[in-house]
Design the sequence.
């Protein structure tokens, strides 16, 4: 049986794109670290060391390669560590939990000591939490230097460095060049008033399938899908605007309208989560292909992704509206709520016929909302108000710090919410890859066959044991099958 290092060595020598972002190569003779697909002449085997993350290579004293640009590698999956604490920690760091460097606060949120958290990160990722956060900021800044015409002051703020001096010193120390020298090297000439950021993803990536999922569920006035573009209103850092996302061949292109650079890194991370850009299709396939039904579905959808959610509260309301009604009906009701209670967004977007114009309302706005007047039955209207109340009171939260079991218990404690809704929200809002709404009719119907009785939820759960930890991806495959229904 081949060791991990042997596998990495073969992948490096063959420049296997499937391993891009899964490990990095430290070259001791040059002091740089590269992606396994680096086009430079491959160094001798005795001169390289493999690292599971870019942060680990950086912490070991290596500098990023200017040729293969490690900052452009697909992101490290949140499940890169086998520890659930590491998984949740990575999600929180990606959302900016260590922007202020407070490791104690992060550890407290995860329910462990800071010493134990450092030990877990070292064991599973080969780097400290602070190193992971620093590398994230550094790579983000380098991408903005290369891809945009933003001023260096704007980039330093957007990437969380706090000051231009600290930003300049860090870039110079890491790359051996000043930020301006790096920009001249790339020849960037993009207007700073309208810019886009390229977000790399792991191939295969089924953009059209994802876009179809969002299009069918787009809340009128809040989301819009047109000509291969996904647009939605967002509120970030006190600014109201619109994100505009499209496929760009190996990357998603994210353009922001009305959102400044201060919130850029947060918006980027949320978009990465929304479109599940860091999923590893090969990991999912290796498990799910063991089931004959899923194996057939994977042949038609090798780039399956689990659609995320921009806001957990919004998704929960949408899931409640979808109980025992069609996707179209639930979408119509969600649009009425946004129209009545959502704040307006006045931002122009070129090239689309119907740009979104409303934010989905914050929970405070729905505490006493008369949703029955919008055609929503009384029991569901009360459940939505109760969810809003629990969210405002802090009894229900949607961040990645909590264990999925904790989240499910808090959500199902609210009258009118059962296991289906809790699993569906955990799947999309918490990005829990093993969430699975086993009672869903579409999932049960996907296994129908002539002369065979329909599966019961308990029987489906038994069958799905073999799909762990990727049951959420199995659900998306089954919902997209000819026999299944949309979730």
Sequence:
């Amino acid at each position: 049986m081949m060791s991990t290092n042997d596998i990495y060595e073969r992948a490096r020598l063959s420049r296997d794109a499937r391993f891009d972002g899964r490990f990095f190569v430290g070259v001791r003779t040059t002091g740089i670290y590269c992606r396994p697909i680096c086009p430079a002449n491959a160094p001798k085997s005795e001169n390289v060391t493999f690292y599971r993350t870019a942060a680990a290579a950086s912490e070991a004293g290596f500098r990023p390669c200017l040729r293969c640009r490690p900052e452009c590698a697909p992101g490290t999956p949140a499940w890169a560590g086998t520890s659930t604490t590491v998984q949740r920690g990575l999600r929180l760091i990606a959302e900016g939990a260590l922007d202020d460097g407070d490791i104690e606060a992060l550890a407290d949120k995860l329910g462990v000591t800071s010493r134990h958290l450092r030990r877990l990160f070292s064991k599973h990722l080969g780097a400290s939490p602070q190193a992971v956060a620093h590398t994230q900021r550094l790579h983000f800044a380098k991408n903005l230097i290369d891809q945009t015409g933003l001023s260096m002051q704007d980039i330093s703020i957007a990437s969380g460095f706090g000051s231009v001096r600290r930003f300049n010193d860090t870039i110079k120390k890491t790359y051996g060049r000043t930020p301006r020298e790096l920009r001249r090297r790339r020849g960037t000439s993009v207007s700073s008033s309208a810019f886009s950021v390229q977000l790399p993803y792991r191939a295969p990536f089924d953009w059209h399938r994802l876009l179809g999922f969002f299009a069918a569920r787009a809340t009128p006035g809040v989301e819009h899908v047109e000509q291969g573009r996904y647009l939605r209103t967002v509120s970030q850092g006190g600014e109201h605007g619109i994100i505009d996302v499209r496929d760009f061949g190996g990357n998603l292109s994210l353009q922001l309208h009305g959102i400044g650079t201060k919130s850029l890194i947060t918006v980027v991370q949320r978009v990465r989560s929304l479109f599940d850009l860091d999923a590893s299709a090969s990991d999912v396939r290796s498990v799910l292909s063991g089931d004959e039904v899923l194996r057939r579905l994977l042949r038609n959808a090798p780039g399956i992704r689990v659609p995320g959610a921009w806001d957990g509260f919004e998704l929960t309301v949408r899931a409640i509206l979808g109980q025992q009604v069609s996707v179209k009906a639930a979408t119509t009701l969600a649009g009425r709520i946004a129209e009545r209670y959502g704040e307006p967004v006045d931002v122009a977007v070129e090239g689309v016929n119907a740009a979104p114009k409303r934010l989905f309302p914050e929970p405070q706005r729905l505490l006493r909302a008369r949703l029955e007047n919008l055609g929503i039955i009384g029991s569901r209207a009360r459940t939505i108000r109760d969810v809003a109340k629990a969210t405002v009171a802090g009894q229900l939260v949607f961040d990645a710090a909590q264990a999925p079991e904790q989240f499910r218990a808090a959500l199902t404690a609210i009258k009118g919410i059962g296991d289906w809704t809790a699993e569906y929200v955990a799947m999309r809002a918490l990005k829990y890859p093993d969430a699975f709404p086993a009672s869903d009719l579409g999932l049960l119907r996907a296994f129908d066959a002539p002369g065979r009785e329909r599966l019961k939820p308990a029987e489906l759960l038994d069958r799905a044991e073999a799909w762990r930890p990727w049951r959420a991806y199995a659900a998306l495959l089954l919902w997209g099958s000819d026999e299944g229904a949309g979730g």
User: Anything to note?
Assistant: Strands lie at 24-27, 32-34, 48-51, 63-64, 196-200, 223-226, 229-236, 239-247, 251-257. The chain has four domains: 4-72, 84-186, 194-278+309-430, 288-302+431-487.
